[in-house]
Amino acid sequence: MLKSIINLFFPPVCAGCHSFLVSNENVICTLCRHNIPLTNHHLNPENEAFKKFYGRIPVEHTSALLYFHKKGIVQELIHNLKYKGQEEIGTVLGEWYADDLKNLEILQSADEIIPVPLHKRKLRERGYNQVTNFGTTLSNGLNIPYNPNILVRNIYSKTQSRKSFLNRSEGIDTIFDVTFTEKDHGKHFLLIDDVLTTGSTLEACSHALLKIPGAKISIVCMAMAHS
């Protein structure tokens, strides 16, 4: 009843286009769901996201759910998730992608889901890691434990959204580190992030995880930057 009263005075709006949601819609309206650009990476093991890491790091699987275009629906979703506190967007995208990924044989061997971590200072500033709900929802849908503690970010940095690939890559291997024990040896880690752009951050995280003897890496993102 309380939720109905709140919705009467503050009706929920779509996180993509800001139109009012009807009773059977949740977070993203039906029109945005219809128009949102899907990658269908899960249908092609040799997809463009996977190829992005050729010669850089060994990956078992790489995929993203959506294409990220400037001024598009996905940019609005990620912006609202990352900067407007709309963490439920991560939950919706996690539910959506879990349905696509649950039958992939390669991910059935994954042992833990690992989020790209925020520095402690950035976490205090934002109040949450934008990939947490995405990760925990994938964890429930894929039955893979979620572990936010094994990978750590050592260096606080400003947003990288306007940096070139060269500047992003410079010194990035020093940003992340890993804390592990012998029980982590030989594990298959599913590394997750919000948007795959140059791949330099995910590459650096993977290098840190690959310090673990016998580790294997797969990567899943909410979206991938697309021209």
Oligomer: single chain
> How would the global form be characterised?
globular
Percent of sequence in beta strands: 15-25%
Order of helices and strands: HHHEHHEHHEHEEHE
Summed up, the helix count is 9
DSSP, total strands:
6
Main structural class = alpha/beta
Give the distance, in angstroms, between the N- and C-terminal Cα atoms. 46 Å
Q: Nearest-angstrom radius of gyration? A: 18 Å
Mean pLDDT: 90
Biggest sheet statistics: 4 strands, parallel
List low-confidence stretches: 1-6, 161-166
Strand order of the largest sheet: 1-6-5-2
Helix content: 25-40%
Describe this structure in words.
The protein is α/β, with parallel strands linked by helices and 227 residues long. It is 33% helix and 16% strand. The chain has 9 helices and 6 strands; from the N terminus they run H-H-H-E-H-H-E-H-H-E-H-E-E-H-E. The strands form 2 sheets. It has a 4-stranded parallel β-sheet, with helices on both faces. Strand 5, helix 9 and strand 6 form a beta-alpha-beta unit. The longest helix has 14 residues. The radius of gyration is 18 Å and the shape is globular. It starts with a helix and ends with a strand. The N terminus is likely disordered.
